[in-house]
Amino acid sequence: MLRHLLPTADPRVLVDASTGDDAAVYRIADDRALVVTLDFFTPIVDHPYDFGRIAAANALSDVYAMGGRPLFALNLFAFPRDLLGEGLAEEIIRGGVDKAREAGIPVLGGHSIDDAEPKYGMVAVGEIDPRAMLANDGARAGDDLVLTKPLGTGIVATAIKAGKCPPALLEAAVESMARLNREAAAAAVAARAHAATDVTGYGLTGHLGVMARASGVSARIEAARVPVLDGVAELVEAGHVPGGTRRNLADAEPFVSYEGEVSETTRLVLADAQTSGGLLIASAPARTDELLGELADRGETAAVIGKITDGASGDILIR
Predict the structure, then answer these.
(1) What confidence score (pLDDT) does residue 4 get?
(2) Fewest CB within 10 A of the end CB: N or C in the chain?
(3) pTM of the model
(4) Cross-sheet strand order for the sheet of 316-318
(5) Confidence label for 208 from pLDDT (cuts 50, 70 and 90)
(6) How confident is the model over 121-137, as a mean pLDDT?
(7) What is the pLDDT of residue 143?
(8) Which residues contact 107 (CB under 8 A, 6 or more apart)?
């Protein structure tokens, strides 16, 4: 679909769609570049205010994943006209504006349409010093892989739709999805990470595959080290798996192999389509302790879940 967009000849374009990165980056001076992205989706939780918070955090995440600082946002909003008097639309917008305010930026307007199915998200505009940019193509063989949020939010969202998500798990998932990746990104920049991406719709395996291909390396995941929201495995075993997660698992077959006992449940969790997931960071081993310390100092939890390795570009071993 993107064949009419690429290649991009403008030398001021630092990141375009060719590497599957998180945001577009456009240089405006030697030490300044714009970071621009957009994202929107249908409700994944029942509470409209929480939906707004999560959608805003998700959109802003792509700026943070590049190591950028958001400047402002614009709303993207689709909602059925007949329900505008119910107060739901205002709550969604309020949630998004409150999350933007937490990020320290204004929402300067946006665009809305009449739509039978609600959708909400943002255009997020930020800036970055190109010399400190966290693109997804800088991972090097030997790097540690660090993940900053637990997996399982896509599975949780499916269970919510079926009315089968335990309240404690729902609360934990909402808190995770609504948390900004600001502090995680700042820690990665401070520790001079080699590469980063946020884990969203392609799942952990999909986004790691994109990073590995862009960097010309392979990767290894230690499945037991990957943080997962408590109770997610039980939801998988009860059949609450989104179609997108199953497609991710099928799409990963050409580049993912397994060693030892890796259950179907684990494979699905690693492929789970996330909303507002954490950052996946490639860190030089000599700096991983510094990165983990920076994350802890900023109130972030994280786990070292694997390694970047030499091998066929994009291949992933899960064991």
Answers:
(1) 83
(2) N
(3) 0.95
(4) 195-198, 279-283, 144-147, 303-309, 218-221, 316-318, 256-258
(5) very high
(6) 96
(7) 98
(8) 72, 73, 74, 75, 96, 97, 100, 122
Are 166 and 140 a contacting pair, CB within 8 Å?
no
Length of the chain: 319
User: Side chain identity at 318, as an amino acid letter?
Assistant: I
Check if the beta carbon of residue 300 is closer than 8 Å to that of residue 187.
yes
| Nearest-angstrom CA–CA distance, 166 and 162 | 11
- Quote the tokens at residue 208: 């790691």
Question: Which residue is it, tokens 């300044």?
Answer: 32
pLDDT band at 7 (very low <50, low <70, confident <90, very high): confident
| Cβ proximity of 182 and 278 under 8 Å | no
Strand 256-258 and strand 119-128: the pairing is unpaired
Residue 158 near residue 242, CB atoms below 8 Å: yes
> With the C-alpha atoms ordered 50, 52, 57, 62, is the resulting torsion angle positive or negative?
positive
Per the DSSP assignment, residues forming a β-bridge with 40 are 121
- Enumerate the β-bridge partners of residue 173: none
Tokens 């499945």 found at: 223
Contacts of 235 (CB under 8 A, 6+ apart): 152, 155, 156, 158, 159, 164, 165, 169
Nearest to 270 by CA among 283, 282, 289, 253: 253
What are the tokens at 286? 């000599």
- The separation between CA 139 and the C-alpha centre of its own chain, rounded to angstroms, equals 17
Integer Cα distance of 112 and 121 in angstroms: 11
Q: What is the CA radius of gyration of the chain?
A: 19
* Tokens encoding 225: 């080290």
